[in-house]
User: What shape does this take?
Amino acid sequence: MDIEVNGLRKRYGRTIAVDDLTCTVRAGRVTGLVGPNGAGKSTTLRMFLGLTRPDAGTVHIGGTPYASLAHPLHTVGALLDGAAAHPGRRARDHLRWLAHAGRIPRHRVDEVLERVGLTAVARRRAGTFSLGMAQRLGIAAALLGDAPVLLLDEPVNGLDPEGVRWIRTLLRGLAAEGRTVLVSSHLMSELADTADHLLVLGRGRLLADTGVRELIAAAGTRTLEEAYFALTAEAVEFR
Ligand SMILES: Nc1ncnc2c1ncn2[C@@H]1O[C@H](COP(=O)(O)OP(=O)(O)OP(=O)(O)O)[C@@H](O)[C@H]1O
Assistant: This one.
């Protein structure tokens, strides 16, 4: 299920957060949405989910705008920055509550806990979780609806190397199942080994829509990180 984006724009006062974004996010691969702080990544993802209203443009998910999807939670799973469980709530109860609210069968809760490796700590309160465990719980919530489209805002943020490796394997597995996986990061290094395709944003503009290998090839002898810095040099917020 592809995501088709056409002429998407969002302005906050004098800041143009997203500037005429047109692209297609394809199924069956991991697409990285990468750009420096303030590039417009979160605003873009929020517009995909209908949480922020665009000034112009459209987003269609499998041909339908999010707001018109018949089964939104079974179509798009999302992890947004700061989407956290109440600290006093046990991990399993948090997911049961989300499943109940979204009319998702209860057995999915144990399935997603297993998939993110939290089964053993499912009875612990979310407030006692490490950053990495909390991140896994957020990903479990995104997986609850078994959706073909997954939008993950900075899922690698704060993970240790083992966590980074784990998430890489998970995302690649989800794409191999044919899902559309869109994952944002401000660090190219986090996505280099995970993404098949990259959308590079800078100050709201799409600077590159390219395969990871093509970007490296185009950069000549540069590493991917250097190619990214060269591409976004003009777009860094504070220089
Ligand atoms: N609700 C808002 N009100 C005003 N300005 C906003 C709002 N949301 C975002 N912005 C501005 O829009 C621009 C893009 O922000 P956005 O959060 O989408 O970027 P980002 O790429 O996700 O950045 P980061 O990596 O820092 O999270 C920034 O200049 C930001 O300050």
About this structure: The first strand starts at residue 3 and ends at 12. The chain is about 35% helix and 25% strand.
